[in-house]
Design a protein that fits this description.
single chain, alpha+beta, 5-stranded antiparallel sheet, 8 helices, 47% helix
């Protein structure tokens, strides 16, 4: 009786660890399976994130390429206008499609043949000089002085004056060809960072700022923002600066640029460049090639003509007409809260 009881007890004691071992193994296997499923899920999420970032980068590069293409076309047109004004023959460059079709070289040959007759034009000039030389030799042979006096009266230099007068309209035409249309493309707007700011010593409503615009030295800028922006918020702030206004003194200090702001009579907000913008980045306006003047001539009133169409839209983006302010590849320029208000 006692031996049977002891045997059953031994079996039970031996079976208990086996039960524990099986349950632990099952738990480990289920945890392993869950970990593998989680790893696969994370791989899929990482792949989706990488694809999204790649698409975003491609979109940014397309925007940047479009802006550069527009700028190149504008400079190309300007160069062609200058060459035409100087009388240079324009030979069309064949497109890749024309070259593949074999049409490109033919068009170039035709242009070359039409341009070839230009050298004989030098012959008439020699013909004109020969009579003058012959006329100069004839008086030397003849003893009569009256003939010598009559020949200078022809005043051949006067015949050259009409040619000079003919050049003046050409220069005027070339100047007109060089002049781009008056729009926002004439404004040189750049990203800047306020590296130093103080109150104007002679004006309570003005700040004196030093703004890094990516140049060798920061620009001094006077802004009437004391009533709207605390000085603590001005320091190290990223801004959009209009850099080709003619420098002007404001209460004795020369201002070399203007900080662009969204503005109402009661509130003013400094326009904010996109994340990732750095001092010196150029601000473009979509649909308007960027061809800024070195310094805008105040007599032409370029900024005064453009200013009425500078506004923020319903999404707070600064715009000229329908074109948004953008830093290519980085994003739009925005106000903080002021929508559909004037930008100046």
């Amino acid at each position: 009786m006692l031996s049977i009881t002891l045997g059953s007890l031994v079996k039970r004691i031996v079976a208990i660890p086996r039960a524990f071992n099986m349950s632990d193994l099952e738990r480990i296997l289920s945890n392993n399976k869950a970990a593998e499923e989680l790893l696969e899920s994370l791989k899929l999420e990482l792949k989706a994130i990488n694809e999204e970032q790649a698409q975003r980068k491609i979109a940014e590069l397309k925007v940047e390429n479009d802006a550069l293409r527009i700028q190149v076309e504008a400079y190309k047109k300007k160069l062609i206008a200058l060459e035409v004004a100087q009388g240079k023959v324009q030979i069309p460059v064949p497109t890749p499609e024309e070259v593949r079709a074999g049409a490109g070289p033919a068009s170039i040959v035709v242009k070359a043949e039409t341009a070839a007759p230009s050298p004989p034009a030098a012959a008439p000039a020699k013909v004109k000089q020969e009579p003058s030389d012959a006329a100069a030799t004839k008086p030397a042979q003849g003893p009569k002085q009256p003939n010598e006096n009559k020949q200078p009266k022809e005043k051949k230099p006067k015949k050259e004056k009409p040619a000079g007068e003919g050049k003046q309209p050409a220069t005027a035409a070339s100047a007109a060809a060089e002049e781009p249309p008056i729009d926002v493309g004439r404004l040189d707007m750049r990203v800047g960072r306020i590296v130093e700011v103080s109150r104007h010593p002679d004006a309570d409503s003005l700040y004196v700022e030093k703004i890094d615009c990516g140049e060798a030295n920061p620009r001094t800028v006077i802004s009437g923002l004391v009533k709207f922006v605390p000085i603590e918020e001005m320091q190290n702030r990223m801004v959009v600066a209009l850099c080709n206004l003619k420098p002007a003194k404001m209460r004795g200090i020369l201002s070399e640029a203007m900080v662009m702001c969204a503005s109402t009579p009661d509130k003013v907000e400094i326009l904010a460049p996109p994340e990732g913008a750095v001092p010196g980045d150029l601000v473009h306006v979509e649909g308007f090639p960027r061809v800024p003047d070195a310094v805008m001539n105040p007599k032409k009133k370029i900024f005064e003509t453009v200013a009425p169409d500078l506004k923020t839209n319903g999404q707070l983006v600064a715009c000229y007409k329908e074109g948004s302010f953008v830093v290519p590849g980085k994003g739009p320029v925005k106000a903080q809260t002021l929508a559909n208000v004037q930008v100046k």
